[in-house]
Amino acid sequence: MNWTPLNQEEQLQTIKDESQERPVLIFKHSTTCPISGTSMARLERSWNEDEAKNIKAYYLDLLQNRGLSAAVAETFSVEHESPQVLLIKNGKSIYTESHFGISFSDLLTAV
What we know:
Elements (H helix, E strand, L loop, with lengths): L2 E3 L5 H8 L5 E6 L4 H13 L9 E6 L4 H10 L8 E6 L2 E7 L5 H7 L1
Parallel strand pairs: 1-3, 2-3
Antiparallel strand pairs: 2-4, 4-5
């Protein structure tokens, strides 16, 4: 899986723009949380580039970017959770899930 680091608020507009052409995934991850680590590992193990339908994946380290996590929640009108995935299409969050509900097959269904 090729993660693009999400570490600047200006990237949120880039994500909105990119999502006009293809789906964009944001994974909000707490590096000290075992549930977050397990959720991320499960997603990475099941990720299949052929099936991913050109989904661009961003990774947000919550501990290093606490304020940015709040900006993500506000920008895409979702409640903050951790770990959490958001699938962005046409500038809007079309799918969000957290904890052990995060799954590659559900992301594909949402696309």
